[in-house]
Give the backbone structure.
Amino acid sequence: MEIYIYVIIFIFGSIMGSFLNVLAVRLSNNESIIYPSSHCHNCQHKLKWYELIPILSYIIQKGKSNCCNTRIPISYLIVEIVTGALYCTAYHSFGFSYELVISLIFISSLITIIVSDIEYMIILDEVIAVACILIILFELVFFGLEFTVNKILSGILAFITMYGIKMIGDKMFKKESMGGGDIKLMFLFGIVIGFPLSICDIFLATFIAFPVAIYLLFSRKDSLIPFGPFLAMAAILIHISKVDISSIINFIVK
Ligand SMILES: [Zn+2]
């Protein structure tokens, strides 16, 4: 029985992934998210329902559009699979619970941000804003005022810490060391994973980014790597693995 639940959640996640991808692309290009309906970005052909099935459409069409044989970016397929997998992992961690609702909003907003930041070097303010408002509202309804105020304070502390790091970085490198989006992201992390953990997130993100930075340094000449996707990936990892700060302190002390 349990396996069917995972299959359904995976399908739901991959449909959401397909939507989040479109959302990231359209918002980054200042396009409407409602109109026009999904179309081929090469010849503008309106996509039929069977061309819109997540994962399967890509595989059946062998990564090319039916209308004009243009290559469909592999990132679409990756985002659909990853979103499906992350939704399943979130369900595994939180079960059917209030946390799961918040978790899915958190994961969805971060996937959108990862796509827009990798493809366009943009961290979408509107995505952060909508996610924060929804999460704070749900926290208030599900867990009460005290819990929510604590989370908001965590968000503010995480934001201030990152702002401080940016100020120091700007002074050290004598140029913009970090985008404003990375700082705003910290507020979103704070209200979900809490304050000290948001700081662990910066370390974990640096740790994940390091090999990628080295690789890019040697493979491309002029490469600017956005830090946002790493911050977001680390936050998703910390969030779904349900680590808490006391277990990290225990780990370090022992
Ligand atoms: Zn086309």
